[in-house]
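User: My collaborator sent over this chain with a note saying "see what the structure looks like." That's all I know about it. Can you take a look?
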Amino acid sequence: MAWSWQDPGAGSPAGIHEIAGARSDAASDARESRRRVSAAEDVGDEVWAGAAKAAFVSRASAVVPELTLLADGLREQGKVLAQYANDLEALRTNQAAIERDRWGNEAELEGLQTELSMASSDESLMLKDPVLYAGWERNRDDVQWRISQAEQRQAELSARWSRLVSEREDLDQRTVAALQSAEVLGSLWGFGGTGQAPAGRALLERLSDLSATDLAVLFQAHPELLEQHETVDPATVAEWWGALDDGQRTALLVSGAALLGALNGLPALVRVAANRRNAVTLLAQSKERLHSLETRREIRGRVPHGGRNEERLILEKEIAYLKQVVAGNVQLYLYDRDASRVIEMVGTPTTETTRVVTYVPGTFTSLFDFYKGGVQQISAYLNGKDSSTVAFVYKDGVFPGENQTSGDMNLLRIGEANDQGLGSQSGKTLASFEQSMRFDPMLGGREQIAIGHSWGLANITSSEVAGAHYDKVVSLSGAGMPPGWERDPSTQYSDFSYRDLLQTAQHLGVVWEGSNPREDPAFEHGGYYRGPDDEILDGIALDPTASVLDNSAHVLNATNAAPYEVLLNNHNLVATGLEQSSDNARMLRDLELWLNK
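Assistant: Without extra context I'll predict from the sequence alone. Here is the result:
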């Protein structure tokens, strides 16, 4: 409650007593509820038996401790608030006494000042008579002495007032601390408040001791704790999770899914289960946002233009995607739409898993591409051919050339695909993912394969510079390798490409300073695959600087758009699965054979 220096006793002790009484009454109700649940739990089998009772007893075993904690906490709250009301009443009584003394002293001082002023005005008259002057002087000295005494009392009263203000501060602090004590908060004690909240391993240990109810209350009161996942080492997380029992894991999954869904070091299936629960909340939010846009459109009587329309289209796609997640048809290892982060898992990790694929799509990739199912095709193909393969379709952050608003290409940012600084940072992020993902006992120790399409290869090779290791690295018309990259002698490298737009640019030496898969002996490769419309390219030199046929129809130049369209389509074709197009069948077959050799 608000109080000030001028009124340190502000507040209503009677109102606080009323609140304290309500807490005490609620504690009594909770104890009675606990008694009734316990009594029902103790009903003999001759009265109640079967699956219904077993289910009730199982639930009651969790509810009774919750009711005990609730009753104890409410009782302690009532005691703390009642004491606060009593202390505040005493403070208000003290304040009233000080105020009375101050008012009386101020009145006395004002009267003495007036008396002294009047006496001073008579001094010239008193000087004419020595006897009268002596009496006047004694009277003046007496008034001045009494003024001095009144001023001293005023200073003492001011000091008492300052102490009163300090007492109110202390009273409030003691009460807040008491309301945040272990007696009141039970297992939630120590989170938030004036003390230092646990972090790192200590936070995980505290969370594992909480019930599902406590976790729900905690994360609602302190959502900042959900960001703590970035402060905990994956090895610590893996060790912690492995030591939990089924009840602790269930409680965390039920009420701590927002934390588990991004907690590095957890088994992949745990994160997928957590993000499936998170998707329910996200789906509701997206539906609400879409409804808001649709309502605005109806009010305007027309379809909104520009950004609003783009947002509506993306929301519709996201809603359809999240419905697939909730249904269990799409498995999310990570999802943060605001930061453009998504990692989708294809396949199911088991003890039979033999191969783990990390697939990184290329330039311009947005969340929209995941919603459409465009970037999962290679991973789905490999898992479909061999169920012992688990693949992660990886996008952890904004990609070069991505338009987060519309999901289209942002050609003004195409230069980012050649940005070594961005490549280095994204490589560190990918290396961190690889490290934490492999703590999963069903994924670590398996053959690790990285496949990168276009800029995705730059992301992968940058992760190698950052410390990641793969058994095989595949370039699907990959962009290049960063400065400082060297082939890992224990890694096999291969490139699979069509004649495409990126290959043409690479022949100019402007992509990753000429450090490209087709130019580096580390990457084995055959000839270029032939696309469905390559007859348009026949006779055109891939290197724009090389000599070409005299036929102007076969010269790669700005006035002839057809070859460029074929080159762009070929660049996308290499990342296409059979369900979308049979034109890439030969490349897919060769990729499968190379991976299996």
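A starting point for your reply to your collaborator: Residues 106 and 154 are 8 Å apart (CA to CA).
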